[in-house]
Amino acid sequence: MAGNIWVSASGMETESWRINAFANDIANVNTTGFKAQLPLSTNIAPGAAYPAGLAVGPGVPPTVLAGGGASPTAILQDMSQGAPTITGRPLDLYIAGNGFFAVQPPGGATVYTRDGRFSPNAAGTLVDGQGRDLLGLNSQPIQLPQGASGVQVASDGQVTAVVGGVTKQVGQIGLTLPAAPQGLQGSGAGAWVATPSAGTLTTVTPGQGQAGTLHSGMLEGSNSDLASLLPGLLSAQQAYAMNSRALGVSLQMWSLDNQL
Would the pTM of this model clear 0.85, i.e. be above it? Predict the structure, then answer.
């Protein structure tokens, strides 16, 4: 009987985890530069160890000898290209291809994003919508000269502006390429931090190597697709409900056994 309880409990925990992943994707269908998460789960063979940390069921070790169950395995990030949205703003940047913008909050660690909404702050530093500095090819913030106007960004990341009536290069945007993009860890909507499993991070000029090019006046939309997400969410909710009912029946039977 304990095995039946753990089977249902593992199923509930796994489906709850899948529901959260699908719900997060749905909540970010309109988030600029967001990449969908693909939750993967697996069946547990009878006699195998159950996932650690299950809180439902009798107080027995997670190595039940009978039954089976389910377990979360991994969340893959869908790094496919999001559709472009034309904005007309010169500092709205769309990456066509691979790569991430490197941005850094004051005194904080560098994070990586595909959200290309940038603008100069009061000091003339290019920042994103969260106030994080946009880092250039040299890993330093891009600073506009005082009085600069007519800022433009070329497909290779070259930033120009009119200074004293003369057009000058005032910065160079780089794109960061992780050796293993799946090793990036989400740190908020449309942003990631590097983990050791991301491997070497290489910052290059847009258009060089495997890096994409930049398109000014456009933004990358979320690649979350409601048409594919909703069936997955409904399936996970139904599986959760079925496991919940099975757990209730197993607990009732277990209670009756103990009374006999």
Answer: no
Question: Alpha carbon of 105 to those of 69, 116, 121: distances in Å?
Answer: 44, 15, 13
d(CA 128, CA 32): 12
Instruction: Output phi, psi for 157, to 5 deg.
Output: 85, 0
Give 185's Cβ-side CA count (13 Å radius): 8
Residue 177 pairs with which residues in a beta bridge? Answer: 202
pLDDT score at 116: 96
pLDDT digits (tens, 9 = 90+) for 29-85: 998 999 998 888 777 666 555 554 444 444 444 444 345 667 677 778 888 999 999
Secondary structure in 3-state letters for the chain: CHHHHHHHHHHHHHHHHHHHHHHHHHHCCCCCCCCCEEEEEEEECCCCCCCCCCCCCCCCCCCCCCCCEEEEEEEEECCCCCCEEECCCCCEEEEECECEEEEECCCCCCEEECCCEEEECCCCEEEECCCCEEEECCCCECECCCCCEEEEECCCCEEEEEECCEEEEEEEECEEEECCHHHCEECCCCEEECCHHHCCEEEECCCCCCECEEEECEEECCCCCHHHHHHHHHHHHHHHHHHHHHHHHHHHHHHHHHHC
Cα separation, 12 vs 27, in Å, equals 22
pLDDT tens column, 204-253? 999 998 999 999 999 999 998 888 888 888 887 787 787 777 666 665 66
Stated length of the chain = 260
- 232's tokens: 């997955």
